[in-house]
Design brief:
The complex is a heterodimer of chains A (100) and B (477).
Chain A (H helix, E strand, L loop, with lengths): L6 H10 L6 H18 L34 H6 L4 E2 L2 E2 L10
Antiparallel strand pairs in A: 1-2
Chain B lengths: L3 H10 L4 H19 L2 E4 L1 H16 L11 E5 L26 H8 L3 E6 L33 H8 L5 E6 L5 H7 L2 E4 L19 E6 L2 H11 L17 H4 L8 E5 L8 H16 L3 E5 L7 H16 L17 H12 L2 H14 L5 H24 L2 E5 L15 H5 L6 H6 L3 E8 L5 E8 L4 H16 L5
Parallel strand pairs in B: 2-3, 2-4, 7-8, 7-9
Antiparallel strand pairs in B: 1-3, 4-6, 5-6, 5-10, 9-11, 10-11
Helix pairs in contact in B: 2-3, 10-12, 10-13
Classes of the chains: A mainly alpha (100), B alpha/beta (477).
């Protein structure tokens, strides 16, 4: 954790996050993330080997409901809020057939 | 100004018309909203129509409920069917949800009148409301200063008298810190106390909805209305909650009030002084002051700023230009995601998505996210031990009074430090609230934070009510 984060790693993370950052944003983000991670190194001093991770505060296990049919959202109302819709479906640009 | 409880009593008895109450609040909005900018949307017509139906029900001999005719401001990350819900983000500008949040349904059933949707830091990420895509909200006590955040709009709306009460969401302090800076009561209940169905997710293991009010009693009444189990939110606690409005009259005789002796330093002297007076006030009212230790408190900031962005990076993946909100066209879907998200999100949201994606990515998961979850457990267990000796704990809600716009510059860490005292309660899931307790530097409001153990809201409200009583009686100077 001691190595400072590089612009290359930041650019890769931006691709993973589907964020087209400008070169200036990559540069600024690299500096800011590095500063934050440096501050966050304060927890490195803690002895945590025997500590179980805690993902959520209230100990509820999987919560299920009865498998009965209930009304869902109105399809037309949902599609009306979409950027593009056609024949009762969301419409998107091509997904396959292009070199991604 | 009448309290929410007084308004509801008046409207239910017919002595007061809900339409008149709404008009009074709309007049106040017309007067000061241009200066304050608490709202993304003032729902004047809908509010008038709701008030008319409340009055009609009373005239017909019916009872609209415990919030009859009470104007309420909703943070604009709560879904209102057919009414724009933006999260103060360009990526959701103009989106109209196809459903109501559970709290919206519960408010309607209690007779409340939603008067508008309030401004916030984009996707609730911030502590000043400066990160809103639609411009900042100003603090009603001093318009050259921030109202706090991220629920700054709701805090300012209640402080300015635009609404009788308000709702916010609190992921790391986003109700309690703006409440402190605006001089109103703000409550983050126990995780799972209030349904989050229809609250647009930021960090799902931390987010909780809670009230803003001008009094502890009004906050209790509002929380009594919105609390409770909801089958639509699998994290909501399947228990009945005792009435908090009933709890507040019980006083603090015998209550054990804890002082965290190893609390992180960094609060301004004027704020610390008010917290000391709060301890003295509760002691004088019959409480016992005890010392407790929470050595890992100081590591909360790091744990939070790894966990919250990690969860946010996942939650905000849904803004992909497909189902709702902004789309920027591109030659294929993958390219469309990247340009849409780059155009739609502001700087702070992008920063947190980047930080969270990094903390979760291969090779770094164990070092950052995994370790943060362990620190979270450590903090939780230390608080659990502290609550064996104390019923409630007192700390500052914010390290300082309201600060001027731009005071934190472009230094994200400086802004994150605003949350140092509020964050632990989100990590542990325990409740916390900010109570206005006099003034500090430049005569600006100071909030004292009351913390309590899981589902110990009654004790927390008792302590808060005692602090408020002292101020009302001219004590606590």
């Amino acid at each position: 954790m001691s190595e400072r984060i590089s612009a290359e790693v930041v650019a890769k993370v931006a691709r993973l996050a589907r964020l087209d950052l400008t070169p200036e944003e990559i540069e600024r983000t690299t500096t800011q993330l590095a500063d934050m991670l440096e501050h966050f190194a304060d927890i490195d001093a803690l002895q945590l080997d025997d500590v179980a991770p805690m993902a959520q505060p209230y100990p509820l296990d999987n919560v299920f409901r009865e498998d009965v049919i209930a009304p869902g959202l109105d399809r037309d109302e949902v599609l009306a809020a979409a950027p593009s819709a056609e024949h009762g479906r969301f419409r998107v640009p091509p997904i396959i057939g292009l070199d991604l | 100004m009448a309290s929410a409880i007084e308004i509801a009593a008046g409207v239910r008895s017919g002595a007061l018309k809900a339409v008149d109450v709404v008009e009074q609040h709309l007049a106040t909005i017309a007067e000061r909203e241009p200066e304050i900018h608490a709202f993304n949307l003032v729902m004047a017509d809908q509010a008038r129509a709701t008030a008319e139906s409340v009055d009609a029900l009373v005239a017909a001999g019916g009872d609209p409920g415990p919030l009859a005719g009470v104007p309420i401001a909703l943070k604009d990350n709560m879904c209102t069917r057919g009414v724009p819900t933006t999260c103060s983000s360009k990526i959701l500008a103009g989106w109209k949800p196809p459903y109501d949040a559970t709290i919206v349904t519960k408010l309607a059933a209690a007779g409340a009148v939603v008067i508008g949707k309030t401004n916030l830091d984009e996707f609730a990420m911030g502590s000043s409301t400066e990160n809103s895509a639609f411009g900042p909200t100003r603090n009603p006590h001093d318009t050259s200063r921030v109202p706090g955040g991220s629920s700054g709009g709701s805090a300012a709306a209640v402080a300015a008298g635009f609404a009788s009460v308000g709702l916010g969401s609190d992921t790391g302090g986003s109700i309690r810190q703006p409440a402190a800076l605006c001089g109103v009561v703000g409550v983050k209940p126990t995780y799972g106390y209030v349904s989050r169905y229809g609250l647009i997710a930021f960090a799902s293991s931390l987010d909780q909805i809670g009230p803003f009010a001008n009094s502890v009693a009004d906050a209790a009444q509002l929380l009594d209305v919105i609390g409770g189990h909801d089958p639509m939110d699998s994290t909501s606690i399947p228990l009945e909650h005792p009435s908090l409005l009933d709890a507040i009259d019980h006083g603090v005789e015998g209550l054990r009030v804890g002082r965290i002796t190893d609390l992180p330093e960094g609060a301004d002297p004027d704020v610390n002084e008010r917290v000391e007076v709060a301890f003295d006030t509760l002691r004088a009212a019959g409480a016992t002051i005890v010392d407790v230790q929470v050595p890992a408190f100081t590591f909360g900031l790091t744990a939070y700023y790894l966990i919250a962005p990690a969860e946010a990076s996942s939650n905000l993946a849904r803004y992909d230009g497909v189902r709702y909100g902004l789309r920027v066209d591109a030659e294929d879907t993958n390219a469309m995601y990247g340009v849409t998200r780059a155009a739609g999100f502001g700087d702070e949201v992008k920063r947190r998505i980047m930080l969270g994606t990094y903390a979760l990515s291969a090779g770094y998961y164990d070092a950052y996210y995994g370790k943060a979850l362990k620190v979270r457990r450590l903090i939780h267990d230390e608080f659990e031990r502290a609550y064996q000796d104390a019923d409630v704990l007192l700390t500052p809600a914010s390290p300082s009074v309201a600060f001027p716009f731009g005071a934190k510059g472009d230094n994200p860490l400086a802004m994150y430090l605003c949350d140092v005292y509020t964050i632990p309660a989100n990590l542990t899931g325990q409740p916390g609230m900010s109570v206005p307790f006099g003034t500090g530097a430049d005569d600006l409001p100071v909030g004292v934070q009351v913390l309590a153990g899981t589902l110990c809201e009654p004790q927390m409200f008792r302590a808060a009510a005692a602090l408020e009583r002292a101020i009302t009686q001219g004590l606590g100077k």
